[in-house]
Predict the 3D structure of the following.
Amino acid sequence: MTSRAVVAIDVGGTKIRAGAVIDGAMGHIREVPTPASEGRSAILDAIAEVAREVMRSTDASIGADTPRLWKLGIGAAGVIDSEAGTVVSATDSLTGWAGTRLTAELTARLDLETRAVNDVHAHALGESFAGAARGSRSSLLVAAGTGIGGAFISEGRLLTGRNFAAGHIGHLPVAAAQGLPCPCDGAGHVEAIASGPAVLAAYRRAEGRADVSSTRELAGVARSGDVIAQEAFARAGEALGSMLGGLANVLSPEVVVIGGGLAGTGELWWSPLCEAFDRELIPAVRGLELREAQLGSDAALIGAASLWPAATSAATSAPKSPMPGNSVISKTTSEETE
């Protein structure tokens, strides 16, 4: 019997992460640096090589005697045309990435059918499929870290918009960010006050400690009692919560899931966020639940694998046995077909 298998890939600006998903079980995770400054071909070659390593490792671990029909699923940085498999636009964090024929290039290198989506979209699919939004009919995923990104899933379908750019919620305006420059070259957007770099910039503007060089360090300083750091995180959380409350009034999802580096900051960020969120909700939407993302960096891999539903669906009669050291992924809604 031929097993259904996916090599799932998460392509970011600093690392490429990959794993195998076979009949609902995930394992054989590999991670390599992204050759971000070396250009398109080098990045594609690195993706292909880590995919080969995952397949080799899988065969060595569970045997190559059982035929496996491998597919490739990718979540990648940039605006991804998921129908054509191309990178519509991208930042300079990946040199020459815009315009890449992503699925065609990787199919040529690996001789595998390939599907691709944006990395934040892949995170949303993963959390919807097997994480904090599992079982919900509609969900809004928010990624709060270096930037502020999002994705909306309705009736199990990812909404990508006319040009596949849906989800850029970091560029919604908020009053608290008025006049602050945004990385998009605009100003006054929530990303300008609520992203990790924005929190650090606010701390520096307020003449905080000069030796604090990262958001992670700043979170530790805030927990130790630094009032300036605490205020920077509180303002960021409040601004993001206010924006998300307004967005929830528009979309009315069953659940809002928040992940990314800032989600691990703790109550000094979460409490102002939740309070501002609740204040903005209209009566018809009140009671909407905010949840912290559950899957961490595995979310994008699970989401990328879910682009091939037959390989990620769990057994209907009995649970799958996970690959060593890993766990089963499954979905509570009815199985889809490819």
Remarks:
- The first helix runs from residue 40 to 62.
